[in-house]
Amino acid sequence: MLEKLSPLPPDPILGTTVACRNDPNPDKVDLGVGVYKDAGGNTPVFEAVVEAEARILAAQTTKAYVSPPGDSRFIEGVTRILFGEDHPVLADGRVGAVQAPGGSGALRVLAGVLLRAQADTELWVSTPTWGNHIPLLGAAGLDMQQYPYYDRGAHALSFDAMVEALKQRGPGEVVLLHGCCHNPSGADLTREQWDVVGDLAEERGFTPFIDFAYHGLGEGLDDDAYGVRMLARRVPELIVAYSASKNFGLYRERTGLAITVDATAEQAATATSQMANIARELYSMPPAHGASIVGEILADVELTASWTGEVTAMRDRLNGLRALLSRSLAETTGTDEFDYIAGERGLFSFLGLSPEQVQRLQSERSVYLIPSSRINVAGITEANVGYVAESIASVL
Ligand SMILES: Cc1ncc(COP(=O)(O)O)c(C=O)c1O
Asked: What is the span of the domain harbouring residue 342?
């Protein structure tokens, strides 16, 4: 039976990483894969994580299953840093939540809950959006639709077109928004634009669904949560997929949270029971380790302070690299064409190059990016930024 399957090509992003690894050029630069890297090119384990792990291992007495909704300290800690200490939805018990394997697992569980609520749910995602949104959420069974978001030529949001598309949405339709650090464009909504989305959600009655995979990497832990907190105050129902992969550096520990904000506490309890049941169908029980680390950090004042400092350093480095790359490109190209990079946020920005130019960067300069010309800013260092900027100028 299995001989009927045909082989699939490797993932293009992973293919870029492998090609870069095999390139003997000592000047090579990998701007492809989407993980944070420090100045040494490493994806470090946070010090707060090392300390939390040590404490957990010392106190551990069992490997028995975690409960179906997951680690309660993790859920309490994440919902607190997400909504903020005094948010009315927490005080009113209107939050349903289930631990999930990464942000991807949270997206999958939430897709399941939307489909159980309404079998023909339409989910509207931005163009462009994270490369796995449509495969993952579409495979779950949601009817995937797209709204305009980013104009690659103008290097700016297509906000007017987005608003026009959202004006056509209504009750029973779901609109996916990136909480911050939009992947792949790096272009985020301003507070004023978030407020317009809030007005539209209230007026039109669609349900906002926020994918929050970069909390703290944009402007700050509170600033990045502006959209989530504002919407949770204004609309009766909100969906959030939270990932601790980037902001706790826990990628391989698969640490995420599926969250619903519901109209009443009773409905939140119902949503939690449904999500736990969907998880049971998919993978039975959540993994323990990553969530226990996040729970340990967020339950401890000193570890929280240490973690916050590390997130701040990561964010400052990314934003500093953005400014540095824009300045270097202004010098090498003699134009202000790349100034927008400094104002975008998170790991990614588009350079606006053609696939042929991307290929030339790879073959002539050993600078690796994916064909859409999305770069991972964290692949730049003070040492290689000049080379990267010269290389980009050489293919323009
Ligand atoms: C926008 C977005 N959502 C979700 C995810 C999934 O994250 P995780 O690794 O936690 O599944 C990512 C990861 O790159 C992402 O960029």
From this structure: 2-45+308-395
